[in-house]
Amino acid sequence: MNSSLERSRKIRTAGIYAFFIIGSVVMIFPFVWMFLTSFKTVEESMIIPPTILPAQWQTGNYADAMESLPFFSLYVNTALMIFWRVVCAVLFSSMAGYAFAKLKFKGKNLLFSLVLIQMMLPSQIFITPQYQMLAKLGLTNSIFALVFPGLVSAFGTFFLRQAYLGIPDEIAEAAYLDGCNQWQTFVKVMAPLTKASMAALAVFTAVFAYGDLMWPLIVNTDINMMTLSSGLATLRGQFSTNFPVMMAGSLLAMVPMVVLYLFFQKQFIEGVAMTGGK
Amino acid sequence: MGNQAAHASRRARSESMWAYLMVAPTVIGLLVLNIYPFFDTIKLSFSKTLPFGLYELQGLDNYLEMFTSAEFWRANLNTIYFCVLTVPLGIFLSLLVAVMLNAKIKGRVAFRAIFFLPMVVAPAAVAMVWKWMFNTEYGIINSLLGHHVNWITDPGIVMVTCAIVAIWSAIGYDAVLLLSGLQNISKSYYEAASLDGATKVQQFFHITLPMVSPTLFVVLIMRLMSSIKVYDLIYMMIEESNPAINNAQSLMYLFYRESFVTGNRGLGSSVVIWTVALIGLVTAVQFWGQKKWVNYEV
Questions:
Q1: Beta carbons of A30 and B130 less than 8 Å apart
Q2: Is B164 within 8 Å of chain A by CB?
Q3: Residue burial B226-265, b: 16+ Cβ < 10 Å; e: rest
Q4: Single pTM value for the model
Q5: Which carries the bigger pLDDT value, residue B6 or residue B143?
Q6: How close B72 gets to chain A, by Cα (Å)?
Q7: Which helix (H) or strand (E) holds B41?
Q8: Under an 8 A CB cutoff, do B177 and A277 touch?
Q9: Poorest-confidence range of A149-153, A238-242, B136-140?
Q10: Which residue of A has its CA nearest to B142?
Q11: Is residue A157 very low, low, confident or very high in pLDDT (cuts 50, 70, 90)?
């Protein structure tokens, strides 16, 4: 009886491992294939049946990709876009989230409904007028244009308001009695208590800004002002049949975020899980 | 007494002053970036697009043009077909992965990280590698199958191809959300059920599924919304010159092309308004339908 139970548990564990190993292969193989292809010549990539390892590991595809796309600018543009979007989202959402959660003022519900309306509408409904505003001001093809729709974050405001709602009022009250004004209470006492939520919002903002394609494609058409995502779209047009170059370009585009992910895997996943449901 | 009241009112005044200062950036930002553009898009959808970025109000012409356009209805069908292909299967697989990740086994953190990996890779790069693997002549998938399937260019298959990539991309994200729902279920339910002789399968259907249903509902709504808005993946995999474009073009792809390639922003705005209405309708149906299967008891 006991040994049969033991055996069925072992079979189940083996089944779970089999599932995970097959699943992992399916998840990782595309990246392995991208890596291997990026070192092959075009001719080799078209051999049937395909070779697994490159006959000769050659880096010409990387040189080609870097020649047709200014990768250094793309990295800088993408990093600056992410940096400013994260700073704006965390800073402005913390301020507004704190006020909406903890302070009394007239018109609070009305103003908060703006946040809710924005969250309910898909971002595409704002894109055309946002683009036209920038175009009118002559601000397209700039870092500011990339950051523009992310200057404030309704989702971030909602999310950090939830975090502040979870902090007891007594803590703010104690800070006030110690002689802090509202701003000092917020900066020195309350904001540090939402560190985990701020980090989650930062990760969430960064991951989505990095993947965003439509907005950078529309607003920055100068190749030196593109992001990694929109740059790849351009590469796709140039090398429609040269897959090794496209694989090299894709690999160059994904490496920084994947390296960050390898180091901060736990923070990434927990950050996204915390902000989940958006 | 009087002194205290004066003090309290001074405090209330300073509190509301600080509150306005602190919400100001967000409120101004929302008004400029979202509220005004929202009304402007509605206005554009009723306007004729003239050269040099000018518009002229004209009534319902854009909507009439849209509703009589075969391309538009095709885009609706494509979008709905994409949702049908991705949402049920994607959620089922994500739940399966989440349940497996919830088992007490060694290496689960590593497996979780692996399934989550596509989330940190830009969809543009993901689309590139899948496009290569699905290539008809030289792709690894056809080599393994020993068949020449036109994954990217056959109008009957192209949406299935996009759906496979979309499911692969989203599985880890949805599984992580579902996993946090699963971890909230108290172990004592399973212990009691085990003592009563319930099998693992019975436990899944009578404990796990009802208890995780609120999370499942959130994931479902979110996945459905983002599937209706699908754009980047299809844009990267299916170029405008692709013979199968008509069968792969989603509503948001159509919006992008009308507004920013063709330059007909009035018509593009009608498409976006229509899509928002569609999302609203689908979400309303979901909220109505949830009463039948979502369990908020415990």
A1: yes
A2: no
A3: bbbbbbbbbbbbbeeebebbebbbbbbbbbbbbbbeeebb
A4: 0.91
A5: B143
A6: 17
A7: helix B36-45
A8: yes
A9: A238-242
A10: A49
A11: very high
